[in-house]
Specification:
Helix content is 26%, strand content 35%. By secondary structure, the protein is an alpha+beta fold.
């Protein structure tokens, strides 16, 4: 795949519309990890309006492409992601939370119809306590998922279309980790997207 073909992939990803609570924004991609790269960030709100609106999760999705591949990828493309979300203290203390977080990733990609190989990553529980002048603040608990995987492509669809499916799967993960209510089958969500193209 050359630069022109990769630009078709980027166009397809730029055209993806997530559910309304997820705001996507294109950001500068890392330049040293692969010959071609595309990056997008996400902020997930609770879906409420005005002062009641609150960010409950965020993330970053990077698509890398190296013609000929890299040894650890097992392919020419690699999806790299980081997501974080607030969790309640009881969930943060659950020893099975990391395993649940990894399963959320796997299930989110499977729900979108993604096929992957060479997946790897970490799931981290983060707890913060405030002291001194910050002590009036509530203690905070978060889950963080850092992961990467190599897409497996079929011959029946374009690579651009299939990579858009992986972005959709990532948005499924954001929805799950943020605790958003699933959209019923057959119902279309109103969508919004903000892209700062550079």
């Amino acid at each position: 795949m050359d630069a022109l073909e990769f630009s078709d992939v980027v166009q397809a990803l730029q055209g993806f519309k997530p559910r309304v609570e997820i705001l996507l924004e294109e950001v500068p991609a890392p330049q040293k990890l692969a010959t071609y790269a595309f990056a997008i960030t996400a902020d997930v709100s609770n879906g409420l309006l005005g002062d009641a609106e609150d960010e409950i999760a965020s993330g970053r999705f990077v698509l890398l492409h190296e013609p000929g591949g890299q040894d650890t990828w097992d392919g020419e493309f690699r999806c790299v992601t980081y997501v974080r979300a607030d969790v309640d203290a009881m969930m943060q203390e659950d020893p099975l939370l990391p395993e649940a977080g990894w399963k959320w990733l796997q299930d989110a990609l499977a729900l979108a119809g993604c096929e992957t190989t060479a997946a790897s990553g970490t799931v981290t529980r983060v707890a913060s306590e405030s002291f001194g002048k910050l002590s009036p603040r509530n203690n905070e608990a978060e889950i963080e998922i850092r992961a990467s995987w190599t897409p497996i492509f079929s011959q029946s669809e374009s690579i651009a279309s299939q990579l858009t499916t992986h972005l959709s799967g990532w948005c499924n993960l954001l929805s799950e980790i943020a605790g958003l209510t699933p959209i019923p089958e057959g119902v279309s969500a109103i969508t919004s997207i903000s892209q700062a193209r550079r």
